[in-house]
Amino acid sequence: ELNRREHLLKFIHNPKTAFTASFFGETTFVDDYSKFHNFEHIENVEKAIVRPEFVKVTKKNEVQKYKSSASHGVTKNVLFRGDSIEVVVDVDGTELKARRGLDEQAIEVGEEVDVFLYRIFVTVGDKAYLLDNKSISEDSLVI
């Protein structure tokens, strides 16, 4: 039973095909992921796929570890989801979903926010590749 669960989680979190990357979970398709800071450029990308768990939305007055790599966003919708708050933000014409904890400060519709993407999937043909935001790996470098 555990082996089957581990296999399914690996399949969901590290899909090899464009179909599986877009099939599981809530996804937003992005034509041009270069609007988001610090992702490796890959040739021939057809689209990028963003899931809510990849997105961190913070108020302008909140501490954001990767603030210099965050994009400017405007809150379009805020929805209670039981154990969390779903925030829909517009980043340069692209609407993304994110989740915030119930213990975090409330965000209002129309509020300007910082939006940081931890990772995205990109598709080339029928293949999917996971790209981590380079700010995260740069943060772990020791000088």
UniProtKB/TrEMBL annotation:
Pfam family, one: TOBE_2
GO molecular function: ATP binding; transmembrane transporter activity
Span of domain Transport-associated OB type: 49-115
Native source organism of the sequence: human gut metagenome
GO cellular component, one term: ATP-binding cassette (ABC) transporter complex
Name by which UniProt lists this protein: Sulfate ABC transporter, ATPase subunit
